[in-house]
Amino acid sequence: MADRTARARSALGSWDVVVIVALALVVLVGGLTIDGVASPRFWRFVTLEVIPIALIALPMTLIVITGEIDLSVASTLGLTCVVMGQLWVSGVTSLPLIVALCLLLGAVLGAVNGGFVTGFGLPSLAVTIGTLALYRGLAYVVLGDRAVANYPSDWTTNAIAPIPGTTIPWFILVVAVLAVGFGVLLYATPVGRALYAIGNNAEAARYSGISVGRVRFWLFVTAGAMSALAGVFWTLRFASARADNGTGLELAVVAAVLLGGVSIFGGRGGLVGALAAAALLGTLRNALQLAYVPANTLTIVTGSLLIASVVGPNVVGMLRERLRRRRSNAPTVSPTT
Q1: 334 within domain boundaries
Q2: 28 in a domain, yes or no?
Q3: Per-residue pLDDT at 180 exceeds 90
Q4: Distance in angstroms (rounded) separating the CA atoms of residues 228 and 104
Q5: Residues with Cβ within 8 Å of residue 95, at least 6 apart in sequence
Q6: Among 13, 251, 273, 309, which is disulfide-ready with 260 (CB 3.0 to 4.6 Å)?
C-alpha cells in the first residue's frame, strides 16, 4: 500500500511541474499578446489538434518507459484512415462496425511491430522505421492519391460536436477516460512497476520473473490500436480519408512524450508530463499560427522542443545531483556549549 501511495505521489514529478508552468506561461503570454488566443474558438482548435497526439502519446509513454519506441504510429493512423474509407465505399454503413474493424487492424499492425521486436530481438527503432515506410506505402497502394470524403454528415458532425455549453469537442472526454485507465495501469498495478523495472534493467527484470517480451509485445499492440482510434477521429474530423493523413505526426507524439520528461533511455517519466507537453505543443503551434508565423518556422519550433526535451531533463538531473553532492560534502558545524 505504501509503495502504491509513493508511486501515485511521484506521478507529478518536478519536470512535470516545469512543463505545466511552461504551458501556463504560453497561455498567459499568448492571451496578452496575440489576438484570438483567449477566444473559445481558439481552444476548440487546440483541443482538436491535441486529441490524436494525446491518444497516441498514452501508449507511447509506456513504450518509451520500457526503453523502446514506435515510429510507425502516424503511418498506422494513415493506413487506418484509408481502410476506413475503403470500408465505407465498399458498402459498410455501420460506424460501430467500421470502428471495431479499424481498431482490430491497428492492433494487428502493432502486433507486427511487437513480433519483430520481441520475437526476433530486433531494435524497435529499426523495426518501426521500416514499418513506418511499409504501412504508409500500403496506404498509397490501397487508395493512391484519391480521397474518400462522402461520409454521412452526422458521423463527421457528431465526432467533433462540443460538450454542451462549451466549444470543447466531446471526444476529449474519451481521451480523459483513457488517460485515467493508463494512469491506473502505470501507477497502481504491478504492470506499472514492471514497466519501470524493464526500462531500468531489462535483464534484471527478466531474472525477477517479469515476462519482458510479453509486456513489450502488448504495449506495441496497444499503440497500434490507439493509433487506429486516432485515425478514426482524424478521418471524421476532416471528413476525408487520404493516404497522407497524419504524415509527420510521429514527430509531435515523440516530442510530447520526451518533452513531458520521459527518458529516451527508459525507466523514468510519466503520463502527466506527456499530456501536459501535448497540450503545450498544441497551444504553442496554434498561437504561432494566429501570429502568422510561417509553417516552416513551426516545424523548427517543434524540432527545437524535441531537442530541449532530451537535453532539459538531463541538465536538470545533473544540476540536482551536483547540488546533492555539494550538500553531502558540506562540513558540519558542531554546536557550542
Answers
A1: no
A2: no
A3: yes
A4: 8
A5: 155
A6: 273
